[in-house]
Every structure is written in C-alpha cells, then in structure tokens.
Amino acid sequence: MELSGLTTRLLGRNFLWLESVDSTNTFLLEHGPQLCCGTAVATSCQTAGRGRMGKQWQGGQEGTLALSVLIGLPFPGEIYPLLPLLSGLAAAQAAGALTGEAFSLKWPNDLLYQEKKLGGILCEARGEGKNLQAVCGIGVNLFQDQGYFDSRGLVYGSSFALSGLPVPEKERWICAFLNHLEENLDRCQREGFASLLPGYTQLCANVGKMVALHTPGGVQTAFCTGVDSQGQLVCQQGERVFSVSAGEVSVRGLYGYV
Ligand code: BTN
Hints:
Blueprint: E1 15-17, H1 24-31, E2 40-43, E3 64-71, H2 83-99, E4 104-106, E5 110-113, E6 116-126, E7 133-141, H3 146-151, H4 170-191, H5 197-203, E8 210-215, E9 218-227, E10 233-237, E11 240-244, E12 250-253
Parallel strand pairs: 1-2
Antiparallel strand pairs: 2-3, 3-7, 4-5, 5-6, 6-7, 8-9, 8-12, 9-10, 10-11
C-alpha cells in the first residue's frame, strides 16, 4: 500500500501493512525500541484488538481498519497525556475532510456520526525518560452491516457505509488521520493545548449535557461544562465543580450514548 497523500515529516513515513496481527498497538509496543518515531502499522485483520478500559475491540474482517502509530522523541513526553484528545480531534478532522460531513467526539476520543460510534482510539505508553514511547491506535468501522453490530451487542456502533456516508479508501483514511495528528502534535508543542481546546470543545458532544460517569466504584451523574487545558472533562454537581481524567472514567449520556 502506498501512502501518496501523506504531508507529514514523521508520521507514517515508515509504514507497514500487515495481512493479520493480534493488535497493531501490541505490535508497536513490542517492537517500539527498534522503530523510529512515526512508524505506523495498519491491518484489516486484528485477531485480539484491544479497547479502552480493558475491553476488547471487535474487528478481524474486511470492513474494519486498525491503524497504530508510534510517538517518541522528538515529540516531548509532556504532550503524551494529551494524545487521546489530539488523536480524537485528528479522527474527527480526517472524517470531516474525507466525507464533507460533520462528526463529533464522545470525550475523550470516540468518533461519532449522528450519535453512533464509527471509531475508537486507544493510546498507551511504555518506557520512561528518553526511552518513553507512546502508541496511538485507532479502529474505524468502514463498511460493516447492521448484523455485525447486532450480533455483538454493539447498540451504539455503526460504520461509514451503514450511516449512509461515503466510505473512505483505506489509504486516504490513513493519510488524512496521520496528517491531522501530526499537525495537532506540532501545534500542541508550539502553542500549547490551549490553542486546540476551542476546536476540540466545539466537537465534543458531551459539553453542555448531563453525563453519567462510570468509575470502578460506581456511576454518578453530573452536568458537563467543558474540557480543561489538561484534557480533563469538567463537570458540575450542584455547587461542586470537578474534573475527571480519561484513564479513570468512561462517560455516557443519560438517555443514550452521549
Ligand atoms: C475503544 O473505543 O475502546 C478504543 C478502541 C481502539 C481500537 C484500536 S484498533 C487499532 C489499535 N489496536 C488495538 O488493539 N486497539 C486500537
């Protein structure tokens, strides 16, 4: 596969298409020390894809695309905690650019179209100091049918095709996502996340709504007022204003997915 639409310096410049792999994230985490920053791996067949909060990520058939990219130096470690938001933003930007439609995000990084989930992102880090590396992996649903989601109990899942959207070609999706992610990383490094926050907040479907915060200790409801400069979700319960981080909670709407 040739990535002729790449405009990046680093991301995707070293690229591997795999016919099958357990998980593109696991592959990069295992081989990271031997690979350069920006190395990307993609497949349509993941046999043990992983999702956020220890969940599985269903895949393993032609209609899906799994893509992971390795982030290390020269990107500074301080921006790695923001990778979930920077990559979520890149996914919505890429999907918008390729289809001409408006996408949104369920914080921190589920890609939504009309409140259905078309893609998910898992960011993971390994090592420390100058050996610190992060892997940012995105799975997108390109053309699975309704039966695919029904048979897996994925009530809020959909694909580009099922949602009546033009289905991006795999190469074009990979290039668009990596191009936007590198732009977001560069801008975050240059100007800080605050410069990307208005754009992110505008796309975040939770802001201005009641949310259910699912933690290992139980579920609580709150009103979501925004996202802060650390990428945390800002919530309010009566007079109490507090922030939650993506590693600790998963968010749902009170009456649906958002
Ligand atoms: C989620 O919504 O829970 C996140 C799903 C992330 C799936 C992607 S597919 C590419 C990469 N490899 C994995 O094993 N997981 C991520």
